[in-house]
Structures are given as structure tokens and as C-alpha cells.
Design brief:
45% of the residues lie in helices and 18% in strands. By secondary structure, the protein is an alpha+beta fold. The chain has two domains: 195 residues, Cytochrome Bc1 Complex, Chain A, domain 1, CATH 3.30.830.10; 179 residues, Metalloenzyme, LuxS/M16 peptidase-like (Cytochrome Bc1 Complex, Chain A, domain 1), CATH 3.30.830. A hairpin with a 2-residue loop joins strand 8 and strand 9. Helix 1 crosses helix 7 and helix 9 packs across helix 12. The longest helix has 19 residues. 44% of the residues are buried.
């Protein structure tokens, strides 16, 4: 997938592998993220230092991330350096060594990363929320794995996961910038031809992940004690899938309800009552699942009142929807955020890759803006009345009472 962006001298490339933490068996929890780290450690022709220095030497940006439904390896370089970036990524994706020494060294790095997230109240409460809301599903497990699962993973398991999952049909290469499609295809064919990676001439891309309805979520409360200064809570309900056509109305609703400093939640919880420093609503969507809700952190003495106010505001938007001014602000926030993000080649590249993985087709910018413009007060009110009336899942993390 490519997009020519006039007037820029850069190119952003991403290799999207259609495998993430939700594709792991329980005994492999964290394998996708572990593998993401290991692919930077070296190939038969490049050491870890060679991989890093190749991009550093031209001022390029180079990184990767693991999500629940895919893993992405990406770079952003001057247009003249794109052939090098494609070759490095192709080498990493098709010919990484996954040596026992690298596995043991990176195991310690990942354990440190997990410990770092365990010290972040926001990460802890969202992981707790997911664990309860999607209990029994791979979506419930943390993307990075747990300390126990990472210690138990062997080199053989990770290497087998690499060889079995990182196949040509599972990969989408997306490039945006000062590029021509035919040139990119030629570069990719050459870079990914190592180890007969493209030998299966009959291979076809895996179809996009699509679902007609979201999977069920588990309601109820879950609480855990941590020696934090604040109480952090997430209150949520079952939401929409990535492909649900109501996602445009949800975007407007989410922006107006809790997406910025002018939003209803921010104004009521922070500005008027001074109950919390950070409060926001969220809408998380996957191919066959979704959650909507509110995240907030407050002093322990104020947590009960914060939760009561949040529930009151949810009830108010269910009963009366948004005002016209709120609708316009929410729509404007969505429109502006989308257009401004697409001034960046990296954002355009990410959009290409994610659409190929999760949608039937790529909508033009004008089509997306038209769908946002078509959202009405009735659309938002109907959606809020549906979503925010669903059974609640509440996760709370904080000090002992």
C-alpha cells in the first residue's frame, strides 16, 4: 500500500504483521512483544549495531510496537534513503537469528519494562480493567505478558512463533511520502526475497479482520491495592467494533463528552468541582470487540465523589444527549485532529496499514469528513442511550482505605 504525498522530501514505511497479543496461546503470553524486541538484535548480514547505525547515520526514525491485533515495524527517512530502510526492514522481518544469547538478554529488558508499567497507575488500572472485562479471552491478557509468562518463554517457543506467524500473507507494507508505487514494489520484492520468503507465488493476503457484532464483556467491580498516592479508576461498558458504521458518531460523542478541556467531563469534574487533575472518556475498538468508558485519577478522599459525578454525567448524556454546541465542538475536534494528523507521513502510513488489516476499503479524507459532518444530535443521543446503559465494568486501583 502506498500513497504519494506531494511537497514532502520524506517517506514513512511500516511493515504491519497481522499478529498480536490476542493471537497467543496462554502459554505464549507476551511472545509477540518479545519477538518485536528480538527482531532488532541481528540477522546473518547485520548486527544489532548495524541495524541501529544504518538509520541513525541518515537521521532516520526507527521503531516498532506491538498491539493486541498486529505488530508494526516502522521507519521514517529522507526519500533518497527509502531503499536502505526497506532493505533493513526486509532483512529483520525475514532473516532474524533469534539467538539464545539475545533471548536471555532481552528477557531481562522486557521484565524491566513490565516492572516500569507496574509502577504506572494508569497502566495498572487499564490492565486490570481489560483482565476483568474480557476475562477468559486473549484480549484480557497484557500485551507485554506477565513476569511469570516472560520468564517461562523459551527460545524455541519464540522462534517457532516467528517462523509460523511471520509469513508473507500476514504482512502488509505501507509507505507514504515522496514515493512512486512501482518503485516501492520493486524495493520490497528485493528486500523480502531472502530465505525464499516470497517463494509461494500462489500466496494471497490474509483477509481483513472483520466481525458483525462485538464480543460480550463481563460486568462487575474489581479492585486491587497498590501504594499509590491516588485512586485510579476505569468505568466502562461494551462498545463498538472497528468496522461498526456508528464509529463516526462515537468519535463525536467521545470528543464532546470527555475528549478535551472543553468537554463535559473535564468541565464538571476538574474545572467546576476540582475533584481530579486527569479525567477523560475513551472508545477502544478491536475487530470483534470494543469498550467505551471513563478513566479518572483522584485523591483517595475524593474517589467516591468522583465516581458519583462520572455516573451522573453518563446518566445525563443518556437522558438528554449533547447540546448543539457540544456536537459542533466534538465534530470540529474530530475533523481537525484527522486533517492535522494527515499532514504527517507517518500518520498517513499508519492509516494505510490499519485499513488494509481491518477495513473493506480505504475511505478518502473527504469521505471521512462527510461522514463526520452527517452525524446528528439524534445519532449521538441514540448511541449514548444504547452504550452508556449497558452493564458496567469498574476497575479501581489505589492505597488501602
Amino acid at each position: 500500500m502506498t500513497e504519494h504525498v506531494p511537497g514532502v522530501r520524506s517517506a514513512a514505511i511500516g511493515v504491519f504483521v497481522g499478529v498480536g497479543s490476542r493471537d497467543e496461546a496462554p502459554t505464549l503470553n507476551g511472545a509477540s512483544h518479545f519477538l518485536e524486541h528480538l527482531l532488532f538484535k541481528g540477522t546473518p548480514t547485520r548486527s544489532a549495531m548495524d541495524i541501529s547505525s544504518a538509520l541513525d547515520a541518515v537521521g532516520g526514525e526507527f521503531n516498532a510496537y506491538t498491539a493486541r491485533e498486529y505488530t508494526c515495524y516502522h521507519a521514517r527517512v529522507l526519500d533518497e534513503d527509502l531503499p536502505m530502510a526497506v532493505d533493513v526492514l526486509g532483512d529483520m522481518l525475514t532473516a532474524s537469528l533469534i539467538t539464545p544469547e539475545d533471548v536471555e538478554a532481552e528477557r531481562e529488558v522486557i521484565l524491566d519494562e513490565i516492572a516500569m508499567h507496574d509502577d504506572d497507575p494508569d497502566d495498572v488500572v487499564h490492565n486490570l480493567f481489560a483482565a476483568h472485562a474480557w476475562a477468559g479471552s486473549p484480549l484480557a491478557r497484557p500485551i507485554a505478558g506477565t513476569a511469570e509468562s516472560i520468564r517461562a518463554l523459551t527460545r524455541a517457543q519464540v522462534n517457532r512463533y516467528y517462523r509460523g506467524r511471520y509469513t508473507a500473507p500476514a504482512m502488509t507494507v505501507a509507505v507514504a511520502g515522496n514515493v512512486q508505487h512501482a518503485d516501492v514494489v520493486r524495493l520490497v520484492k528485493k528486500a523480502f526475497a531472502r530465505n525464499d520468503f516470497l517463494a509461494d507465488v500462489d500466496a494471497v493476503p490474509l483477509p481483513p479482520r472483520l466481525a458483525t457484532s462485538p464480543r460480550a464483556t463481563k460486568p462487575g467491580d474489581i479492585r486491587t491495592t497498590r501504594p499509590f498516592e491516588q485512586v485510579n479508576l476505569v468505568l466502562g461498558m461494551r462498545g463498538l467494533t472497528r468496522s461498526d458504521q456508528r464509529r463516526y458518531a462515537l468519535g463525536v460523542l467521545n470528543a464532546a463528552f470527555g475528549g478535551g478541556s472543553s468537554s463535559r467531563l473535564f468541565q464538571e469534574v476538574r474545572e467546576r468541582r476540582g475533584l481530579a487533575y486527569s479525567v477523560y472518556s475513551f472508545a477502544t475498538s478491536y475487530s470483534d470487540a470494543g469498550m467505551v468508558g471513563v478513566s479518572v485519577g483522584s485523591l483517595p478522599t475524593k474517589s467516591g465523589e468522583v465516581l458519583e459525578v462520572v455516573r451522573d454525567e453518563l446518566a445525563r448524556v443518556v437522558s438528554s444527549g449533547l447540546t448543539q454546541d457540544e456536537l459542533e465542538r466534538g465534530r470540529g475536534q474530530m475533523r481537525g485532529g484527522l486533517v492535522l494528523s494527515l499532514e504527517d507521513t507517518g500518520s498517513r502510513m499508519t492509516r494505510l496499514g490499519e485499513v488494509e488489516l481491518f477495513q473493506d476499503r480505504l475511505l478518502s479524507l473527504d469521505e471521512v469528513l462527510a461522514r463526520l459532518d452527517a452525524v446528528t444530535l439524534e445519532d449521538v443521543h441514540t448511541l449514548a442511550a444504547d452504550l452508556f446503559n449497558r452493564p458496567e465494568t469498574l476497575a479501581v486501583v489505589g492505597p488501602e482505605n
